[in-house]
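Researcher: Sequence recovery benchmark, item below. Answer with residues only.
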C-alpha cells in the first residue's frame, strides 16, 4: 500500500504551526494589550454602549441593535449547518460507504481516503461555526432581557454584568467567524497541500489586518471605568 507523499505531512504541519502560533500571539495581545486589538477595543466600547443604554433608557435602540446581531448570527449558523450537512452527505454517499468501511484502518496510508479525511475536517469547521453562532444567539437573547430590566429591580444587573454577558455572546460570534476563516485553508487542501500552506500565509496576513487596529490611536485610552468588568480593569492602550 503506498504511503503518503512527504508534502501531505510537511505542509499541513507547517500550516498548523503557522495558524496556531498566530492565534497564540493574538490571544497574548488581547490579554496583555487589548486596546491594540479590535477585539479589545470593541469589548471596551461595548461596555460604554451598555452603560449609555441603561443610563439614557434607550430601550428601542438596544432591542434593534441586538436584533441585528441575532439575525446575522442566525443566518451564519444556518449557512454553516447547511454546508456541514452537505459535506457529510457527499462523504457518506452509497458508492463511497463500502470503500470507507474497508479503508478506515489505513486512513493515513491511502491518498483517496485522506481526501475523505479532509472533507470530514472541513465539515467539522462548519459544525463548530454552527455551535458557536447558536451560543452567540443564546447570550444575545439573554442580554435582550437583562438590558431592559430597571437597575432598581435587581442590584446584580450592573452595566458590568450585562456587558460581560454581551461579551460572551460576541466571543462566540467571533469564534464562529474564525471557523469560517480557517475553513479556507482546509478547503484549499482539497486541491493540494501547497495550496493549503499558501492559503494559510495569505489568511494570516488578512487576519492580522482584521485583528489589529493599526489606524486607531488609543494611546491615552484606559479601561479603568467605574463598574467595568473585572477582566477589563487595568488594561492600557499603546502607551501603557
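Model:
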Amino acid at each position: 500500500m503506498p504511503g503518503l507523499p512527504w508534502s501531505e505531512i510537511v505542509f499541513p504541519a507547517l500550516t498548523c504551526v503557522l495558524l496556531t502560533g498566530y492565534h497564540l500571539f493574538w490571544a497574548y495581545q488581547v490579554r496583555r494589550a487589548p486596546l491594540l486589538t479590535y477585539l479589545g477595543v470593541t469589548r471596551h466600547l461595548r461596555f460604554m454602549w451598555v452603560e449609555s443604554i441603561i443610563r439614557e433608557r434607550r430601550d428601542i435602540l438596544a432591542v434593534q441593535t441586538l436584533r441585528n446581531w441575532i439575525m446575522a448570527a442566525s443566518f451564519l449558523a444556518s449557512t454553516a449547518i447547511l454546508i456541514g450537512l452537505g459535506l457529510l452527505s457527499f462523504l457518506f454517499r452509497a458508492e463511497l460507504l463500502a470503500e470507507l468501511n474497508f479503508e478506515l484502518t489505513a486512513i493515513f496510508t491511502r491518498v483517496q481516503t485522506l481526501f475523505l479525511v479532509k472533507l470530514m475536517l472541513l465539515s467539522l469547521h462548519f459544525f463548530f461555526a454552527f455551535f458557536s453562532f447558536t451560543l452567540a444567539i443564546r447570550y444575545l437573547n439573554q442580554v435582550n432581557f437583562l438590558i431592559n430590566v430597571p437597575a432598581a429591580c435587581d442590584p446584580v444587573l450592573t452595566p458590568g454584568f450585562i456587558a460581560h454577558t454581551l461579551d460572551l455572546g460576541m466571543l462566540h460570534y467571533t469564534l464562529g467567524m474564525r471557523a469560517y476563516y480557517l475553513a479556507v485553508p482546509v478547503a484549499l487542501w482539497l486541491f493540494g497541500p501547497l495550496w493549503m500552506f499558501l492559503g494559510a500565509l495569505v489568511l494570516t496576513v488578512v487576519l492580522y489586518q482584521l485583528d489589529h487596529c493599526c489606524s486607531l490611536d488609543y494611546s491615552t485610552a484606559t479601561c479603568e471605568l467605574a463598574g467595568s468588568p473585572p477582566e477589563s480593569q487595568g488594561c492600557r492602550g499603546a502607551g501603557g
